[in-house]
Design goal:
Number of domains of chain A: 1
Strand content of chain A: under 5%
Strand order of the largest sheet of chain B: 1-2
Number of helices of chain B: 5
Largest sheet of chain B: 2 strands, antiparallel
Helix content of chain A: over 70%
Radius of gyration of chain B: 11 Å
Number of helices of chain A: 5
Radius of gyration of chain A: 17 Å
Oligomer: heterodimer
Helix content of chain B: 40-55%
Largest sheet of chain A: none
Number of strands of chain B: 2
Order of helices and strands of chain A: HHHHH
Distance between the termini of chain A: 18 Å
Largest interface: A-B, 13 and 16 residues
Number of strands of chain A: 0
Chain lengths: 130, 68
Amino acid sequence: MLFVLAALFLSQQVTYFSGMHDAARAVDHVKIAAWLVLSIVLLLMLASGGAWLRSAEVRALLNDEATREHRRTGLVNGFWAACLTAIIIYAVDMFEPISGRDTVHIILTVAIAAALLTFARLERRAHRDA
Amino acid sequence: MPERLANGLKERRTELGLTQAELAERVGVTRKTINTVENGVFSPSALLAIKLAQALSVPVETLFWIDR
């Protein structure tokens, strides 16, 4: 499920960056809004553990010690991915100017994807041989 | 050589005839967490280590030790 979410999130970015995009066009408003909503949902899920429709007891069980550790590791990796991406964009911008909006978009996308993929990988490993 | 927290969780659990799911229920975690502790993938907190020792009726230092 987590890998599917990550794939969906990344494929959304391919659609966005593959064509010409401009915040002034109505169609790009929709694309940007969709990306922003999904980004916020994924960030909230990574921060809180998700399972919002379950009872507090079930949420506490799903969010046990190992899961919290996996989420923490995911968020740490997301932070480093964001920092490295920012450095790369800073360097690339000297030769090929990148807009502020695209910079934010790329950094946020890479950070969320790195955190989500790390979390998904650790959870899958934990379930293996169980 | 780095120090590692080793455990005899699987041996003790098997000795008592418990499944991972049953032990998980006793300590209030998921089976996944029991699995990761048993495999040495995840080092539990002191709180969880004590809960596991209590659930398996052994002193915590018998269940967990430092592997050098």
